[in-house]
Amino acid sequence: MHRAILKAIDSKWKLSSFDSVGWGSFQNGEGVSWNLPIAAASAKSSKYQDYRLHYSTSKLNLNAFFVEEANRLNVYAPLKNLFGEFGIELKLDGVEKVFTPKAEKLPVRQELRDLGIAGGERVVWDVGSSWFRMKKAE
Question: What is the mean pLDDT of residues 34-58?
Answer without folding.
Answer: 94
